[in-house]
Amino acid sequence: MNPVKVSNVTVAYDRKPVLQEITFDMPEGKLIGVVGPNGAGKSTLIKAILGLIPTASGTVDIYGKPYKSQRKLVGYVPQRGSVDWDFPTNALDVVLMGRYGHIGWFRRPGKKDTAIALQALDKVGMKEYASRQISQLSGGQQQRVFLARALAQDATVYFMDEPFVGVDAATEKAIISLLNELKAQGKTVLVVHHDLQTVKEYFDWTLLLNKRKIALGPTEEVFTIDNLQKTYGGRLSFLDTQLDPSHVVQS
Amino acid sequence: MWNELLLTLQDANTQWVLFGSILLGVASGVLGSFALLRKQSLIGDAMAHAALPGICLAFLLYGTKSIGWFLVGAALSGLLATYFIQAIINHSRIKEDTAIGLVLSVFFGFGIVLLTKIAQSKNGNQSGLDDFIFGQAASLVGSDVKVISSVAIVLLIITFLLFKELKLFTFDRQFAKGIGLPTGFINALLMTLIVSAVVIGLQAVGVILMAAMLITPAIAARYWTDRLDRMVIVAGTIGALSGILGTILSSMASNLPTGPVIVLAATVIFIISLVFAPNRGLVSKGLKLYRLRKRVARETVLQTMYDLAEEASISNQSMLFTRDQLLTRRRMATRMLDKNLHRLSREGLLNQTDGKWGLTAPGAKAAYEVTFNNRLFEIYTMYEMRFAYLQLAANDAWEYYEIPSHTLNELMELMAVHEHTPQLDPAHFAKGEKYYIANLESNDSNKRKREVKSS
Description:
A: alpha/beta, Rossmann fold, 6-stranded mixed β-sheet, 11 helices, 37% helix, B: mainly alpha, ABC transporter involved in vitamin B12 uptake, BtuC, Arc Repressor Mutant, subunit A, 70% helix, transmembrane (chain B), cell membrane (chain B)
């Protein structure tokens, strides 16, 4: 059974459609990159799947059941800029928030949760920073704290919103090795991505999106000049400088 | 004065009032922390002002003063005002600050109109409604305190039980929604809690200043801690302290309203926090900056001495330097230079002969350390991406002895490639000998092979 089945999802802000009739199945155990120009609705797609914004129509099933009953199977990494990093808390505390869905109402995180959170921090190379106030972390380190929080959710499907934006080389490496580890564990990961140059290197599958689904499939098959042209339209001159065309045609 | 204070405290009513204002202070400090972190400080102000017409209408409908109905009226008109503010933001291009300004003044104006109307009516003088403007804790009677305290305790219990949820909601609403927290419900609940904390404080603190009671303890607490649970406790304590001070001072002077005194007390605590809090306070920040400047100035002089000595030893010249030579090698303020030259000579790192300065044996060692550390850092910044795994945060101090040895070796090799390695061995040149470090076969600085050039 497919981990995620998106059927006919349409999202509109003020009657202006942001996503139109998006339908696709996510294959299990793949790293899927979502690319498209600014304003193509990449983040909106994740938010619509997770039910964070109202959809005008359509349904989302996680392993054949509605999202609401399958929340524990889903991990989420929001954009780093979506929170105030001067909030009075430390890295471990933020990662522990990933356990809240498992802990339930009224109860406090226990030893087991702390152990899981520390393990998650260790996986992203941030164990020494557990008790650091979050405002004292660099941008990349903050991003890794968010990744660790998603790991602590112990999910089977992950959605990550632009985790590579504004991070240092160490963080980029940490994220990639983490993605591959998740894949090796048979988990499915959907990542909103902005850097076309690295798409082929990082992702097995690619979803090309510009308000509509342009293409979805194994990266070698769908990441073609033709599809990119359809996705980015007139902005292709910019594409030429970013991509070696022979490279793309080859695939 | 102390006798007077003791007499005041022995009075049963004062004890009740005191008890009420403590709980009030705790509740508003705790909930104010959440309002502050959600950047909704002004919403509290709007709610407090907007409560006035609600109180007046409750009086007009019920006929006499009744704390219970006043609370209901205040809460309803406070929530109505919040609703209007949200509606204005959602359905027009007006921003939040403007919407708050609009709604707050309209509600407060309407409240004053009603209040004047009541004052002119026949039982207006007994209404005690005037107390709601600036607050009068002394006007609280036992039954008022019971209602206020019970509400405050309920608020605190709810906050305690739902602390984890409120925290996640306040920090990252999207994520909270993603893991299935009913964020709509929590938002409404938190709003209701804040409105309730405002409303129970109105009689003691007054509609005009109640917002300060919500925000001042919270922002003062933020200076003392970087953890939400502690911040909430500290804010509650500061709120309680302000409540105690305000109530006692205002009950000792006749006709002194409680609200302003409570707010002044809270503000004094805030100013103390702003100035003296560890890490975040102004004094602590100033001291840190002063120490940093002092250290940088001292290191600059030492490194300049080392640079000059290094150059002089290569061309076989005197190892003593004038002030002007130092200034030519590295531009710095003359006053700073003089101050540090004398400080370093007092520390025995420099000595002065015939107006020229030279490094002593311990001085040479210190200058070498500083130069080595700074040049290594220069190399690190050139190759920052390669060494990103060191995970240096931007504000961490750079100390070479904290770097893992294999990384240190790599950095030292790069330093040699760029001909940046400090050339003078500190152990020898103080004796007048000029030594060069021949190679870096062994990276342990004590075991370096040296080649004697000349003495």
